[in-house]
C-alpha cells in the first residue's frame, strides 16, 4: 500500500510515542522507548492504527519515519513490534538490521517500561 502523503507525523519523545495525524486527528502511533545508555537505540514496541485509518498506509509511514528519525539521531532501531520488524525486512535499504545482542538488550530493557505492556 502506498503511504498517505496527507499524514503528518510528530514525535512525542517525552511520552514515547510517534504519532501520525490525518485531518487533524490521531490516526496511528508507534509506542517506543530509548535504550540506555543515551544516545541509545530506538525500540519500537507497538504500532497501532485506528480502525477508521487502516489501509491508508499510516503504519508504513510511521515506521519509515521512525527509521528516518533514528538515522538522523545516529542510532539504530530495534523493531520489537511485529509490524515494524516485517516492514524492516521488506525495506532493508532504509532499515539497518540490529545485532542479536542489541535485540536481547532491548528485550531486557523493555521490562523497565511497564507502561508499554
Automatic annotation (TrEMBL):
Residues 102-117 have a biased composition (Basic and acidic residues). InterPro entries: Acyl_CoA_acyltransferase, Gcn5-rel_NAT, GNAT_dom, GNAT_YJDJ. Residues 94-117 are annotated as: Disordered. It holds the Pfam family Acetyltransf_CG. Residues 1-117, 10-99 form the N-acetyltransferase domain. It comes from the Bacteria. PANTHER family: BSR4717 PROTEIN, PROTEIN NATD1. This is N-acetyltransferase. It comes from Streptomyces filamentosus. The lineage of its organism: Bacteria, Bacillati, Actinomycetota, Actinomycetes, Kitasatosporales.
Amino acid at each position: 500500500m502506498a503511504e498517505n502523503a496527507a499524514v503528518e507525523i510528530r514525535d512525542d519523545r517525552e511520552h514515547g510515542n510517534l504519532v501520525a495525524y490525518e485531518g487533524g486527528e490521531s490516526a496511528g502511533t508507534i509506542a517506543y522507548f530509548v535504550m540506555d545508555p543515551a544516545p541509545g537505540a530506538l525500540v519500537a514496541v507497538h504500532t497501532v492504527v485506528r480502525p477508521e485509518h487502516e489501509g491508508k498506509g499510516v503504519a508504513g509511514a510511521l515506521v519509515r519515519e521512525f527509521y528516518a528519525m533514528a538515522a538522523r539521531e545516529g542510532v539504530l532501531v530495534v523493531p520489537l513490534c511485529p509490524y515494524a520488524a516485517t516492514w524492516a525486512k521488506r525495506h532493508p535499504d532504509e532499515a539497518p538490521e540490529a545485532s542479536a545482542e542489541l535485540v536481547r538488550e532491548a528485550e531486557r530493557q523493555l521490562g523497565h517500561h511497564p507502561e508499554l505492556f
